[in-house]
Amino acid sequence: MSAAQATFVLLGIPDVNGSIRGKAFRPAAFEAALQHGTVMTDLLLGLDPVDSPITDYERFGIRAGAADLVVHPDPETLHDLRWRQGWRICLATPSWPDGTPCEFAPRSVLRRALGAMEDLGYEVMAAFEYEIRLRDAEGHPLSSGISYSLAELGRFETFMAGLVPALEGLGIELSAVHTEAGPGLLELNLGPRRGLGAADDAALLKFAVKELAASMGLRASFLAKTASGEEGSSGHIHLSCWKGDSNSFAPPGSADPLPPEMLAAVAGILEHLPASSLVLNPNVNSYKRLVPGWFAPVNASWGLENRSTAVRAIRSPRAELCRLECRRPGADANPYLALAAVVA
């Protein structure tokens, strides 16, 4: 379906929380936006999760008068919303009225971090995995909380039957799904993408999960911790750096030590982890997940195939699968800012 055939096209900007905010455009208005851009208030970048204006920002948002941004659709992100007949969605890149990029937009922040890596000769490959909680309309979890249970996975069958085509319509690869050790907890593993596409997939996944769940009378949550006696919800980031078709995180042979590029990346992530936690764990609730005794890292540590550490080094006989897993982020983290923090 082309944009001209759509009933509406949702044009959205990921905000500071990772939510997608914007407007619904009729086809002719969207086509005009593709040619000339359109305008949206910069307040979209300065709202908290419950829609209250963030008053700390002086350059934009409520304290600056909620002025206009010029918004340019990114046609590569134009996709179908298969659960909304005749609707499409497209992500956008905002700029200031003078034409300079809006450096505070999360997609722009990530672009700068990726650009710095490209200046060093590396291209970033990344994938997100999310643990989400699903409850019915009365608040009852869909599963009892047995991890990797094939039997319990069947309790999510109806939801997954809708989610798979929804993600396919958005161009998102869902590689695997399994239950986790928490009531109603389901892990979704996304396929790897190069650069900005990985964070776009993550943001659109969150959007699709919440929309689809609501359409089925379910409640989907990406809250980092919903109960003190249960596992929290993570948003782990898998990462590798490439030069052309060569994965710089892959050792030459299976018996060889980890390459210096991977070890340098580990060291950099751990050195800056205290500061980057402000992005990887952005809410008060985020730190309720980071407590001893659960599968969430509480210190700056790393290990080879160690799921108790903040960074897990993963080696594989297949060079393309050698990577790092940053296990610090919760499911509540903004995927653009989280990936930018890890890359930087």
Describe this structure in words.
The protein is an alpha+beta fold and 344 residues long. It has two domains: 100 residues, Roll (Ubiquitin-like (UB roll)); 229 residues, Glutamine synthetase/guanido kinase, catalytic domain (Creatine Kinase, Chain A, domain 2, 2-Layer Sandwich), CATH 3.30.590. It has eight helices and 16 strands. The strands form two sheets. Strands 7, 8, 9, 10, 11, 12, 13, 14, 15 and 16 form a ten-stranded mixed β-sheet that branches. A hairpin with a 5-residue loop joins strand 8 and strand 9. The longest helix is centred in the C-terminal third of the chain and has 21 residues. The chain is globular and about 60 Å long. The two termini are 38 Å apart. 43% of the residues are buried.
